[in-house]
Amino acid sequence: MKDQSLSTSTNTIESTSISEPIQTDKQTSNAIYFLFGSLIGLALYILLYGVSRLDVSNTNYIFSRCNDIVNHYLGWCFFRNGDWQFPIGLTDQMYYPNSISVLFADSIPIFAIFFKLFRSILPETFQYIGLYGLLCFVLQGGMGSLITRRFTSSKFICILCSIIFTLTPVMLFRVYWHTALASHFLILYALYLWLCAKDLTWEKAIIHWNILAFLCGGIHLYFFPMIGIILIAFCIRIRLEKNCPIWKCLLLIINFCLTGAFTVWIIGGFYGGMGLSSVGFGYFNSNLNTLINNIGTGKLLPNLSLGTGGQYEGYGYLGAGVLFLLVISLVLGIINRKELFSMIKENKAILISSLWIMIIALIIAVGNTICLNSHTLLSFELPDKLLNILNMFRASGRFIWLIDYVLTIYAVKLTCVLIKQQKLQLLAFLCSCILLMIDMSGYYYNFQDEPFDMKWTSAKYENLAKQFDSIHILGYLDNLELYYVANFAATHNLSITQFAASRVQDSMVTRYIVADNEVLKQNKADSSVLYIFDNTFYSTDYNLHLYNLDGIIVGSSNPIDGFEEEQFSLNTNKYFFAGNSAAVLTISADQTNFDENQTYSQVVGVIYPASILSITSMDFLSNGDYTISLTGYNIDMLSFSLINQSTGEDIPISVTTNENQQILQFYLSCDNPDLTLSIRNNSTDNNALVVNMDYIKLD
């Protein structure tokens, strides 16, 4: 058997198909290879993370970095606390009294729904994110082994390639930051079906792609178009190689779409005040250097610059190990170019379909802002209707993952084909694994948990929870403040009116802020509600008992036991709304002493679509450079003009857009100018904007 295996490995390129399986190891089933790879994934997970995160009561690692993973965990907590609704993924605990789907908390809906079935017997603190991270490693290793088996009969090479697929940088980058997006085994599963296209019957193909559609809808929607691109590549192959009727190919695609849509519907993805579209396409994209740019995660290649602040979403670093294999393949391909060209001619279908995957993925990932390093090579506007569709998947840079995995598969296959001796193949893959581990070694320290001081958790807050049923937020809390409040609400079975879910229609939030404001102005505060204010949103018209809880202003109609009531000065109080209309707030005489290098806040209010607000009473400003930061909802839809009314001068403004923030920079050439800042809401839908404005004078 050993001689036979070695003989197979020395076949000429002409007789070797890119995707045909090696036939010399029929005694070992796919299940055994999958098990090998899964065990490798398990071992690597324990090596990197240990077992502490598998403790379902351990939430320390979730809060240790205070990133998106906090929202995903709290989204599950809110969903667990709420009553069952239909569609079954809905909860009214996150944006009370609205119901939204747990899908938009990125809480891995199929896990959330499954575990909610057993909530009565689960421990009080229960997190499944650690278990899901382990599952990603296990399935990544298993699928990597199955894919490699199609190219070699060597179990050792399959094991080494399981390491390469499991430790791929793009998966590690996500696993405990945005855990649902670490489900890259879905991409490998789809690519495996693509490689197996000639072996699958049409009936089995229907089953497999339906499973994938269900998983995409139940884990994270971004995988749905990615897998759809691979499905079309699968159809290209079976059409060219098996002459599959076009109607069968179309039926596969339609069936995939219907299954995915049904899954999203049953978990509430099309319900209520949520929208699939957003903003950010062309900002959260990929840089052309992404395949070799480790953005600080690797040790062996230089860290290259990016063109926009959102291009971290387009992180597609292949890692030194895969780049090493690709370089070897390129060199050997040039040396054996005649044989390589012969192989290309014999494998047109799979090459054409792989080009489809990579070209479409590249077009979407790069978007309409093409950058190389920090240089913008080309930027162009897209039609509004097309942009609305593309903004459904605004972080388009993530589509670069498809190119990563196709290139990784080619690197593995070409190494197996172009290196004739199996021992040299083993050496090449061993070197690849070593390079990968060295390259990413500086990144592994990020996997260690760090302590985090979560506020609103001391014993006195237990009494606070007993006095209220719901928390209503008027204003804008920063991420940390929202973590404190949302964690308190979620762990004490209180509903909350704002949360950091994705795809929330801002008008939904604004409508209830306006309603709460009217209730408070009429002195009809609900005694079961704890009201929370941005420190610029409280009005003296509110007849409330006020408290400063760890830097957060709260109010209630009745005194709160265990806390000392505070009186806030008029200098702190700002008016938010004047009835249901937008309110432009002027600066009182007490607030005109504007100290340099200090931040001054003013509430702009609500800006309705196709309307303009003009901010005046800015004559306290003096000569110098200024930055104005505007934070709020739908903030990217604003445009600005700044005019000195005394001179008629149109003052140039430099505008930088970040998520939920616009930063304006300008220079004043005189003291106490008669300024008017006009802010226009350019949105055409029903979304209003709630905006805070912070001034700071620069040195």
Set out the fold topology.
Layout: H1 2-9, H2 30-49, H3 60-63, H4 68-81, E1 90-95, E2 98-101, H5 109-116, H6 129-149, H7 155-166, H8 169-172, H9 185-195, H10 202-219, H11 223-242, H12 246-266, H13 320-335, H14 337-346, H15 348-366, E3 369-372, E4 375-379, H16 384-390, H17 400-418, H18 422-444, H19 460-467, E5 470-474, H20 479-491, E6 495-496, H21 506-521, E7 529-533, E8 545-549, E9 552-556, E10 599-607, E11 612-615, E12 624-632, E13 638-644, E14 649-650, E15 654-658, E16 661-668, E17 675-681, E18 689-697
Parallel strand pairs: 5-6, 5-7
Antiparallel strand pairs: 1-2, 3-4, 7-9, 8-9, 10-18, 11-17, 12-16, 12-18, 13-14, 13-17, 15-16
What would your notes on this structure say?
The chain is α+β, with helices and mostly antiparallel strands and 699 residues long. Among the domains are: 277-445, no CATH class; 460-556; 589-697, Jelly Rolls. The chain is built from 21 helices and 18 strands. It has helices at residues 2-9, 30-49, 60-63, 68-81, 109-116, 129-149, 155-166, 169-172, 185-195, 202-219, 223-242, 246-266, 320-335, 337-346, 348-366, 384-390, 400-418, 422-444, 460-467, 479-491, 506-521, and strands at 90-95, 98-101, 369-372, 375-379, 470-474, 495-496, 529-533, 545-549, 552-556, 599-607, 612-615, 624-632, 638-644, 649-650, 654-658, 661-668, 675-681, 689-697. The strands form 5 sheets. A 5-stranded mixed sheet has the order 6-5-7-9-8, with helices on both faces. It has a 5-stranded antiparallel sheet with strand order 10-18-12-16-15. Strand 3 (369-372) and strand 4 (375-379) form a beta hairpin. The longest helix has 23 residues, at 422-444. The protein is globular. The model is unreliable at 1-16, 570-604 and 694-699 (pLDDT under 50).
